[in-house]
Amino acid sequence: MIRRSFVAAALALSLVPAGRLMAQSEAIDAPMLARIREEGLRHSQVMDHISWLADVYGPRLTGSPTMDQAAEWAMKTLRSWGIANVHQERFAFGKGWSLVRFNAQMIEPQVMPIIGMPESWTTGTKGRVTADVVLAPIRSEDDFAMYRGRLRGRIVLTQPEREVNMLEGRIVLKMNEQDIREALSEPPPPPPAGRGGRGGPPGGRGGANASGPSLQQRIARFQVDEGALALIERGPDSDMATGGSDLSWQTQKTDGGTFGVGSGGSRDESAGTGLPSIVVAVEHYNRMARILEKGVPVRMELEVETRFYDETQPRAFNIIGEIPGTDPVLKDQIVMIGAHFDSHHGATGATDNATGSSAMMEALRILQTIGAKPRRTIRIALWGGEEQGLLGSREYVRSHVADGTAVKPEQSRISAYFNIDNGTGRIRGVWLQENHAVQPVFQQWIQPLDDLGVELLGPRAVGSTDHASFDQAGVPAFQFIQERLEYNSRTHHTNMDFVDRVQKDDMVQMATVVAWFAWQAAQRDAMLPRRTAGTH
Ligand SMILES: [Zn+2]
Fold first, then answer.
1. Residue 500 DSSP label
2. pTM beyond 0.85, yes or no
């Protein structure tokens, strides 16, 4: 917890031009806030939503059967609260994929059960196989000669071993004074072209460019042509994770059986043609590599079964629902709250993003339970395909807000979109997305949330999640500032993103804060101010 005096001082120093804080006063609906707080803080059901999504339905990989099952639950639950117009909006995605079975162990020179997980959209081994393991870290085409003829029928370790450090770095990121100063400061100049955003083209990594196949693709082709049986990797070379959005908030990855795993294959017509590809815990990987370096043979037993699903109807979807507006003039205007509903497959997507989806659902439940009758319509959107490149929110924007330069009806009717996608940590404020005109508005909204730790309005534009789709279409769109906690060190896209890492008190706070923001935005006389053109 930071000292109030520090926040006040930091705000005063944050280069905000004089006059920005001299805005008209916002109507603060104190009786409504009291009811939202009572329902949200004392009768919260948010942990129950998270447990249903993450424990019962588990990984919600877009296009997979568990994504459909989780969606059925969410829609049924929203309807049971009386949320109106609950429906899916489906969009084309490509082939679906799910993991059926995975077992791996080293069997020579000793038995060692291996912690690992196949990458999504990769193939199986056609039953249980036993094979020699070979260390073949190919870094360039020059290495092909060295490994030609040595991969056939073998399980290939594709990287050199990686140094594993003690956990002496920062693991849990609770914002300190320096982090807060950074959050409150103007963002750095835009990075050079080619940086930022999420990696890789859609449909798998290492896409081709104008000059032909990428190095990644040429290496993959070599491994297939040489007859390798399966590929094994241990994740990135660094055990440090960045905070994203040009924030210097680094944390040390925990290792110790925890690893990141995402997509390793394509969803298009070429789906299912590559090799089985598995990420394993770095310690297990390193042990096998060190044994092989001594010239001692390593054998593994491996069984991978995966399933692909044809796209007979559009496989992906967004879930939409709303509390209809009641003001004769304003009810066609919309305040949107949303979060991505999908996850990667490595664990259960508890903090990425059952937390965000559940907080948004709970915010609607709070408002509905206390009988809120908003002037504007409050709409929830639970997105699909976020992990493959913000596909769901982009599709929503394309069909309702703006398709390129073609403006659609909701562009002028959505007052704001609020998003959550940074894990389980409580809301500390809002990233203003360089929309400085909302600063005095939000400043007044967060004043009565002081005791809940909501104090920060950070000017910078953050990216890599669904509010960016709306932001690009000119709609005021915001990601809340959250405590990152273990998000980047332990849970984000890992095999250990389970409900145990979700922080109950923070989740209760999060849903309550969202309900308040949605209510204030829905009741305000005017829509929220839009960013002046050309400032972003
Ligand atoms: Zn996410």
1. G
2. yes
What is the CA(465)–ligand 1 centre distance, in A?
7
Query: What are the pLDDT tens digits along the chain (536 aa)?
Result: 344 444 444 444 444 444 444 568 999 999 999 999 999 999 999 999 999 999 999 999 999 999 999 999 999 999 999 999 999 999 999 999 999 999 999 999 999 999 999 999 999 999 999 999 999 999 999 999 999 999 999 999 999 999 999 999 999 999 999 999 999 998 777 666 654 443 333 334 445 556 789 999 999 999 999 999 999 999 999 999 988 888 999 999 999 999 999 999 999 999 999 999 999 999 999 999 999 999 999 999 999 999 999 999 999 999 999 999 999 999 999 999 999 999 999 999 999 999 999 999 999 999 999 999 999 999 999 999 999 999 999 999 999 999 999 999 999 999 999 999 999 999 999 999 999 999 999 999 999 999 999 999 999 999 999 999 999 999 999 999 999 999 999 999 999 999 999 999 999 999 999 999 999 999 999 999 999 855 44
Nearest by Cα to 385 from 277, 305, 267, 477: 267
Asked if residue 454 lies in contact with residue 38, where contact means CB atoms within 8 angstroms, the answer is no
Please give the distance, rounded to the nearest whole angstrom, from the Cα atom of residue 285 to the centre of ligand 1: 27
The rounded Å distance from CA 422 to ligand 1 centre is 7
Report the C-alpha gap between 79 and 85 in whole angstroms. 9
Hey, which bits of 409-522 come out as E strands?
A: 414-419, 427-431, 456-458, 477-482
Burial degree of 54 (CB within 10 A; 0-12, 13-18, 19+): buried
Burial class (CB in 10 A: 0-12, 13-18, 19+), 89: middle
349 CA from centroid of ligand 1 (Å): 8
Ligand 1 centroid, distance to 298 Cα (angstroms): 37
Distance CA 220, CA 126 (A): 20
* Helix (H/G/I), strand (E/B), else coil: 154: coil
Can you tell me the distance from the alpha carbon of 283 to that of 476, in angstroms, rounded to the nearest whole number? 45
Domains contained in the chain, CATH given: 28-93+312-523 (3.40.630.10), 96-184+200-309 (3.50.30.30)
Amino acid at 449: L
Q: Could you identify the residue written with the tokens 């806030």?
A: 33
Burial class (CB in 10 A: 0-12, 13-18, 19+), 389: middle
